[in-house]
């Protein structure tokens, strides 16, 4: 099999130029997004002081609450609050999270690893399983596997991730009692061991992966099926290449193209899905922090998390464009 | 680049991420997770503390596990010495409290505890730059100073009888907490104290892990390991208790019932100061009318609420003081009497209209009643209240909302509220009833204004004489019969289910806000594993 061209040099310069252009473009996007977050949060009915004080606020005097408002800096107007945050963020100081009573960098640092682990595992599950099933389904369109998986995929596309999570807890943790229902480790355990994390990761990663899988499956199935009808494949078959080579070497390669764009566009979905799944499984990632930051109008934490999510989306798009350019040289890198 | 090499790259990246994350987060030097044997307890709680720093309000009512106060509450809610060797000496004018400190106490980092730490703790809390939302509770405190290494002297702005009850709040080490940002420094999440337990881990939203402090001045606890799992959902908590993942949990009455026949588990019913009430705003033309207030007070069927909404786990409430408290005024119970309610309204000129709703001088007897959306218990109380009021000819329209929606309306709209702090009758009554606190945050939500009550509230807090205080609080409770600014409905018991593996678990009288410090595990440091003698042989 000589389909894979070895030794072709990657167009590093073009790729770097594209990454650079995108990075420049990201600056105004991030500025607008952070300002929008501050504006939306300021307009929301939630009161940061009340959220900070919690139940103690119910018996606190008005003077005490006013002092808190000044200490937290939320008595300042929107624009100056945003500008202060922006200028100190640029010097590397992300500020302090009111609701977590910790510097924002600490909050994110403690949690982002677990979120990345969950999202990466789930993404891997979705891509690998989706591609494998897609190829198999495309090979025998209308076959029993195709019909079963396709209808399951359409059902899953419609099912919300948190519902799948609850279903999985009910079945695997309560009925079968084979997998833990939530958390990062067993409740009584004080230490984080690889085995514990692995067993606790199975359900959330599977649920998140499965909720993303239909898109990959359907794209690959369609792509490969179309490619199987095209001339190159017919040519390869005519040359007597075996079925496996034709399917994986020719059909899959051209059928994967639309999926590469999908990788980028699924990143936002993956992030929102992860928020829900993390909440359902008490996964100590950034989801709980995001929800808390939003409902308690914790400006510094909210802004940092939004920047993070925006950056993830932009990077996802960049990645899929780079991959696309590599896989199909006709597309190139931003012309 | 081919499909295969793309796959290879993706796989390698993923593997790398997995390995890095696992390596960064695991702790290979730590001992293997032990089984949850008798010397370890795992309990499920519903609320997580925001911070573990006593400077920000953590453990202000005692039982913080990690810290000790100068004093502590016993099982009977009587004060006993903790970091102080005895109860304070109070000067004759009630303005100076002198505490002698325990000697030889060390913080869990090995450094000694001294008077400087006490002064640091209280001065930091009083500092305006400290974001402590409970600072109001120390309002009476003017200053605190050390007199030598083992004596501290508190000076008050005005005589405040329950001041000693406020000194159960935990003492922070100056040599650690004094060197960092009080609001966001690492001390807020990785605390160091003198208490019976040392925090070993806090996975926010998941659990807090503690180990016994072997050098605890009160003797090393027998329960060596304590885990508090934070599980917000009641059903999940019950399931994890049943599966054996938890040794104990707080549960609502309907779920606690499921464990009644389980012989290995005991159910604890903690009596509380946790009340539910309806505010009757003075600035509303209907609820501001004394006749309407008095009619509602007898029209409401408190017993039915206890039996049906709380499934028996509670008591009818006639004021902030529960009926079984020593401070309760006998004879102020109000029986359910719809006929009397009708008579009060008739006599006051509230005549029923064609639709059964009363009116007086063109004012219809109707008012809105807000409850916190999503709080099922408050919703059920509100609906029962509205139904009882309807029978008396008063139209109460219930509405759900968040505090952001409710708070601006509290001056004229009724709210179904909850609260309650045990310890001293002053704590709840002053904040609920003092006219000068009308509309001050969430204090005196009904803008209650009764000069006789105001006077008695001041008398009650300014004298240390028990009989005089009792007389003052009796006056208040009798005034509340004549002019009830709130309709008190119920005091709610808190239910806990716990494995019967230890000797020692009991419950205290609990406050409204019952997180980590409440429940039968408030004194877990004193528990003795059952059959501990046998296992040692």
Describe the model.
The complex is a heterodimer of chains A (335) and B (537). Chain A is mainly α. Chain A has helices at residues 12-43, 48-53, 62-72, 78-90, 104-139, 144-158, 161-175, 194-228, 231-238, 243-255, 257-280, 286-295, 299-327; strands at 96-97, 102-103. A two-stranded antiparallel sheet of chain A has the order 1-2. In chain A, helix 1 (12-43) runs antiparallel to helix 4, helix 5 (104-139) packs across helix 8 (194-228) and helix 8 crosses helix 10 (243-255). The longest helix of chain A has 36 residues, at 104-139. Chain A is globular and about 85 Å long. Mean pLDDT of chain A is 83; it is low at 1-7. Chain B has 537 residues and is of the alpha+beta class. Helix content of chain B is 27%, strand content 21%. Chain B has 15 helices and 24 strands. Chain B has helices spanning 3-25, 115-126, 163-166, 174-177, 234-242, 253-256, 290-299, 302-308, 338-347, 376-391, 403-406, 425-433, 451-462, 466-482, 532-536; strands at residues 40-45, 71-73, 79-81, 89-90, 96-100, 141-146, 151-156, 197-203, 207-212, 225-230, 248-251, 265-270, 275-279, 314-316, 351-352, 358-360, 363-364, 366-372, 395-401, 414-419, 486-492, 494-499, 502-503, 528-529. In chain B, the strands form six sheets. In chain B, strands 8-9-10-1-11-22-12 form a seven-stranded mixed sheet. The longest helix of chain B has 23 residues, at 3-25. Residues 1-37 of chain B have low confidence and may be disordered. Classes of the chains: A mainly alpha (335), B alpha+beta (537). Chains A and B meet through helix 2, helix 3, strand 1, strand 2 and helix 5 of A and helix 1, strand 8, strand 9, strand 10 and helix 5 of B.
